[in-house]
Amino acid sequence: xxxxxxxxxxxxxxxxxxxxxxxxxxxxxxxxxxxxxxxxxxxxxxxxxxxxxxxxxxxxxxxxxxxxxxxxxxxxxxxxxxxxxxxxxxxxxxxxxxxxxxxxxxxxxxxxxxxxxxxxxxxxxxxxxxxxxxxxxxxxxxxxxxxxxxxxxxxxxxxxxxxxxxxxxxxxxxxxxxxxxxxxxxxxxxxxxxxx
Length: 196
Hints:
With 196 residues, the chain is α/β, with parallel strands linked by helices. It is built from five helices and nine strands. It has one domain (2-8, 24-194): 3-Layer(aba) Sandwich (Rossmann fold), CATH 3.40.50.
């Protein structure tokens, strides 16, 4: 089963204008699947394909290829990274530079996967800089419950000034790796990417 919906347009978003009046946007897709080619990752690829075909500058980051460590902070919050030397700051910098951010996760225990939550925690140190973004969320689940993960994403963007939710893709009843192929939700991800 697939659920697709769009939310209201983001106001005040600045984007470059290309040929034929297209508002060319910088699109960052963050795939947190622990399995490359997993169902949520495949939906990311379709979103990416749609965005590129529409003329946008789009990139997918696969967190499983990166070294992303847990957030560490001092008790008085004066130092929020405590000398962590990993790939998280590079991802955060890409988020700051993007116009559109897509976050994708498989659902485990009715929630987003640990890889995504760890990455979101690492944004904490620069959350005030991740502003005026358009967000899309992709979730896949063997069952039907994506509510906790969606709530987690929505709570996260509440702390990012001027950022708006623009769309959600929920692929449910999809369990085995690759079983999303041929499902309507694949086309939905592609179309959503085309229409960012």
